[in-house]
Write a structure and sequence with these properties.
alpha/beta; Rossmann fold; five-stranded parallel beta sheet; 7 helices; 9 strands; globular; disordered N terminus
Length: 194
Amino acid sequence: MMQYSNKKIIIITAPSGAGKTSITRFLLAQHPQLAFSISAATRPPRGIEKTGVDYYFMTVEEFRNHIRQNDFMEWEMVYEGKYYGTLKSEMERIWQNKQVPMLDIDVKGAIHVQQQYPHNTLSIFIEPPSVEELKRRLESRGTETAESLQARVNKASYEISFKHHFDHIIVNDDLSRACKEAEQLILEFIARTD
């Protein structure tokens, strides 16, 4: 079992629709030493999402209060009026359970966490096979309007330009292979004692 003093952090980042959530779920199901870092969000729950499980759902005002109190490790206004962030208290909760937090966060947030914790993070960028394939995946969700779909596709193209800021890039053209590749990198990282 890892030492609490190591305080390692695993970051999985990708444009929306690249498959980071599927890969994160696979890794969490296989490895009990990993724990999902629950992000704070100002968007409403979707479907069966629950607060404290999928996200800490907050009002914009609650979120801004946390910003003022410096409670976030990272936060972004991802879309107009929609904030997402990682609470410092969430990292502490996971480390106290002697687990390694897995952050499933957007690209800007991932870069910010890496800058704050340069020696104890492993960052993996999940790249879609192409922007066209990403657009198809987002369309198939059926949750986007034409405008929001275009905004996500434009944002994805921009985010892909930052992929070289991360320790590893995995192209998700085959989900099971991408999962195994991420798993190998994470197990090596957790085993490191430096």
